[in-house]
Amino acid sequence: MNSFSDLVVQFDIDMNVIITLLFLPLIVTIVGFARYVIGVRSLGIYAPIVLTFIFYEFGITKPGSIESDVFQGLKFGLFLTFIIFLTTVVSYKILKKWALHYYSKLSIVITSVVLSIIGVLVIADLTNNPGILKISVFSLILIASVSERYMNLFAFNKSTKKAVFLSLETLGISILCYLVISLSSLQNLLLDYPLLILLNLPIAYMIGRFSGLRLTEYYRFRDVLDTEEE
Amino acid sequence: MGITNILKNRNKVLGLNKRNLTYIRKYNKDKAKEIADNKILTKTVLEAADIPTPKLLAVIDDYRQLINFDWSTLPKSFVMKPVFGLEGGGIDIFFNRDEQGRWIRADKSRVSEADLKRQCIDILNGKYSLAQEPDKILFEERVQNHKAFKYYSYKGIPDIRIITYNNIPTMAMLRLPTRESEGKANLALGAVGAGIDIATGVTTSAIYGKTGGIEYIPGTKIRVSGLKIPYWESMLKYAIQAQKATNLNFAAIDFLIDREKGPMIVEMNARPGLSIQLANDDGLRWRLRKAYGLKVSTIEKGIRLGKDLFGGTIEAGVEQLTGKDVIGIVENITLYGKEDQESSVKAKIDTGADSTSMDKALAIKLGFDSIIKLIDSGRLPTGISSSEGHALEKPLYEELKDEYPDLAEVRFVQSSHGSSMRPYVNLSLKIQDTKFETKASIYDRSKLTYPIIVGRKSLFKFLVDPSKKNQIK
């Protein structure tokens, strides 16, 4: 039988599409691990997946190849995430004072996010900084829609501090996921033995049944835990 | 202390995972959750079971009803709540109405009918409900603060939460509104949470927002511990009755106490928060394990079990509880020194203090001069951080024990007097007719009323009844 990677070559599928597909379940598992075992929350499942693949796309050095530059991925990815986050929060905070319906507010916020992305692209072009221009149109749409998650967070959270903290936790998880999926040894392993993704099933089951204290809870309840038996 | 304790105790504390997987999923059926999540349904079920709850004044189901709502039907003072609200979000309390027809809040801010309608639209839109689903609005009578809490709560009314499991009250907490929480009894906003001893209804330890353990209500000299909750017995009874009526087998039941009408259930929660463990300085999981599977045939038995299993000193089991002496807050006790020299003093029984501590002068009387010398030598550092302090306990003791044979232990203590390393000695003492050994720290109490306070670690053989204090001259 042909190996899976031969098949991919034979049908001329972009290797990165395959990587993305194979790693998708793993990312979801990592997000679950972060929440139930470590105790780090994320903004749903959608935001970390999108952010992870944005980092991944920026890290690709040659189109069609799976070689990636982690530093470059993080540099551009974090920069763009930051711009989107900032635009969302600032425009939302301004809009908040007006009594508008939620989706209308969102529409204005997304408009300003898209404008700022265009601004970034124009500046990158003018300053001869092509790295950030490589990103695909589809990813741009995805990244703009992440701002909906951010806005939702600020709209339904009373404390700005909490919202910022949750965004940072999401970013942290996404960076962790990115570092895992850009390991070339892991990529090659999965390309050679794609059925390995079935391992996600028992792992997800184990995490799903985990009923111990989360790591962050050891900290939260440290005073209760650290008592002498009488 | 440290890692070994934490690992040993990890099965005593209830975490989110265990709560969700076992206690909510398994023991709270969907139908019971539906009752708890819907405040109108909760009221209906409780009223049918003759359990007191604030009187329902009006309900607004949708926009059409909001437009047609006749505001003049409401009294001057009322509470407005989202029917599916979470964690107290969206609740507004009005005390009076001014000449222009505006309602007045506790903080003196005024709200016109148009403002109120806007708030109502937010609620109907689901701003405070789970997953932002469309909501309804309920108006109920305002509960008036009981005088027992007058000096304890800032502006708002404190609430009392009892967690019941398997028809047994397992843990309880008093939440006191503070200046920081703007009169709301919400820990996340900075309210004080005080643990309640199930057996006596008296507050024990307390936490304040995220700052951790406290002894006094912030900005006051009022001790949080030692407050006797009025109507405690009937609240335990209502809690179990409410659990039976709603079939919610793992429930947090929230009470308010009205000045005239007494305790009323304002809310039932199918997903109890975990901070109650911090307020009680004890884990909930071991208590739930103990309550599991017990046959509770009557309400009285449920109360009895709760008191016996979880009341009194934290670790006390049923066996220890029987035959305990009941003592007051001030007791005449006898101390026995190194050479058995006796000394009778008036002592403060302080369930809010962790351990026993005595004054320097008293320590000299009992023959512990060497420890006084140790204190005066300046070899015990003060004003250090808690992590430094805890790390120092063992090495410091090892270093000093040969030179000072009376020294039993060195412990880091943080109190309202500042943080310091305190020396401990072994001490025999007699309260009423029970003589026992305990560890006591020594420090300067000359400016305080009592030369000795007896703390929790020395009180395992006793039950403390605060109302008993007047019997002692």
UniProtKB/TrEMBL annotation, chain A:
One Pfam family it belongs to: 7TM_transglut
Superkingdom of origin organism: Bacteria
Keywords attached to this entry: Membrane, Transmembrane, Transmembrane helix
Keyword Glycosyltransferase: no
Regions crossing the membrane: 15-36, 43-61, 73-94, 106-126, 132-151, 163-181, 193-212
All copies of domain 7 transmembrane helices usually fused to an inactive transglutaminase, residue ranges: 16-224
Entry annotated with the keyword Transmembrane: yes
Name of the molecule in the record: 7 transmembrane helices usually fused to an inactive transglutaminase domain-containing protein
Biological source species: Candidatus Dojkabacteria bacterium
Top-level taxonomy: Bacteria, Candidatus Dojkabacteria
TrEMBL record, chain B:
One matching Pfam family: ATPgrasp_ST
Record domain ATP-grasp: where: 43-305
GO biological process, one term: SOS response
Domain of life per record: Bacteria
A GO CC annotation given for this chain: cytoplasm
Keyword vocabulary terms for this entry: ATP-binding, Hydrolase, Nucleotide-binding, Protease
A GO term, aspect molecular function: peptidase activity
Gene3D superfamilies: Acid Proteases (2.40.70.10), ATP-grasp fold, B domain (3.30.470.20)
InterPro entries per UniProt: ATP-grasp (IPR011761), Peptidase_aspartic_dom_sf (IPR021109), RimK-rel_E_lig_ATP-grasp (IPR039523)
Annotated PANTHER family: BETA-CITRYLGLUTAMATE SYNTHASE B-RELATED (PTHR21621:SF0), RIBOSOMAL PROTEIN S6 MODIFICATION PROTEIN (PTHR21621)
Protein name: ATP-dependent zinc protease
Origin species: Candidatus Dojkabacteria bacterium
